[in-house]
Predict the 3D structure of the following.
Amino acid sequence: QVQLVESGGGLVQAGGSLRLSCAASGRSFSSYAMGWFRQAPGNEREFVAAISWGGGTTSYADSVKGRFTISRDNAKNTVYLQMNSLKPEDTAVYYCARDSSQFGRTRYRPNDYNSWGQGTQVTVSS
């Protein structure tokens, strides 16, 4: 059982950058893969990025590949999402989540994750 709190969202112009943070509290953070998802009004929650429990493997949605970078600092119980070259279509509520299985690599289905934060709003203007 873990609690996740996202921060770092806000309003930014197209082409700008934001860095999201997800701080975790509770048991066994470092042994679980972590993911970032996003959801815009009227859309389903979609996969953005994931990182394995040890941080050695990452995966990204095609829509953000080359622009976003996921990382983690297990000593600080924190996962990050660096977002560069932001586009208006990146506007959404961003959620961090913990994979349901220990020692995982990267998965992309929401049902593969069983702990979720409350989300942070990212708005990209034209």
Remarks:
- The first strand starts at residue 2 and ends at 7.
- Residues 6 and 22 are 4 Å apart (CA to CA).
- DSSP finds no helices and eleven strands in the chain.
- The chain has a mean pLDDT of 94.
